[in-house]
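quick one, 95 residues, struct below
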Amino acid sequence: MQKLLGNAVPSLLAEVLARAIRMQLLDNPAEDSQPQLLPPVRAAVPPPEPVTALPGKYRRYIGDHDDHPGESLGAGARRRDKAQKKDTKGVYARA
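---
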């Protein structure tokens, strides 16, 4: 894991700057020609998958809808609360 220096200076940039300062001030080039923090060359990105038709069961979500009411306030949360109240039958709260 690499840490950022100062005001979010990427590690590779810090290494390149340090090498340049070392060369200018000490007349001593770094032993390695490539920076050690240089990420390896990655394989090519695969081509995107073709777009398919939208399944019918999701078509009802197309259009403008009200915003979600917030965390633990949606329809699913209300169903869980209702089911839990039925399930407890006089027991106050579950831990």
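DSSP finds two helices and no strands in the chain.
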